[in-house]
Structure formats: structure tokens, C-alpha cells
Amino acid sequence: MERIASFQVNHDTLEPGVYVSRIDGDITTYDMRFIKPNTPPFLPNPVMHTIEHLFATYSRNSKYADKVIYFGPMGCRTGFYFLVRDMSQEDALELIKDTVFKCKNHTGEIPGNTAAECGNYKEHDFNGAIEALSKYYNKLKDLTVDNLKYN
Length: 151
Prior knowledge:
This protein is α+β, with helices and mostly antiparallel strands. The protein is built from three helices and five strands; from the N terminus they run E-E-H-E-E-H-H-E. Helix 1 (45-59) crosses helix 2 (89-104), helix 1 packs across helix 3 and helix 2 packs antiparallel against helix 3.
């Protein structure tokens, strides 16, 4: 069996940041690495779950809502996949940075956090998510398309 592309990347060389992982026609996959792979501590599931709710809600309520395809966790618990359709890298990076900024400053309830809306609504860590988002934003805030990474 042939290995898939993401298993052919040397994860030991990846640092926290945003990577263009794959371009398939008009769909681009971004890897949003919050922590260095293979370097514990990994993001706890409740933190990842909370970030997923916040980021998905803010990005799907942005001016680019119709271009957002998917936002979800990496199984290795080092970050998230973000898929967009028909967006320039400049616009996608703007959306990522703006959304992370809004998420790290979110107050109030976690969106979609009821039994009717979420299959695991009891497993959230709001404070841990805000801390992780704040650290990640500090790594992103000066990122430009010119220094966007590819893997």
C-alpha cells in the first residue's frame, strides 16, 4: 500500500505555524500547527474540542463563510486542518489570523455547547483553549504570505 502524502512529511522538522499542506484544484488545506510535533505536552482533547467550536463558529460567520469547507483537529493533537475553497493565500492567512485573534478574545459561552448541538458537550476546557490560542496567535501575528511554509 502506498503511503499518503502527510505520512511522507518529516514531522521532526515542523515548527508551530501555518503550513500549506495540499492544493487540490480550488481547495487548499492548511495545517495549523500549535505545537511542535513529537514534542509533548500535546494539546489535551478538551482544549482541542473548545478551539474547534470557537474557530469553526468564527470562521463560518466571517466574510469568507462560503469558502470555509472544514476545520478539525489533527489526530496527533498538535494542531488543526483548515480547508478552504477558492481563496487566495493572502485571504486565507487573513482569515486564519483574524479568527484566531477573535477566538483568543472570546468571552461568554462556548458556541454549540449543548447536548442537542454537540455529541461530547461536557468535554471542554475554555481556559486552556484561550491560553493555547493566545500562544499560537503570538506566533502568527507577524506571519505573511511571503514567509508562509509548505509541507
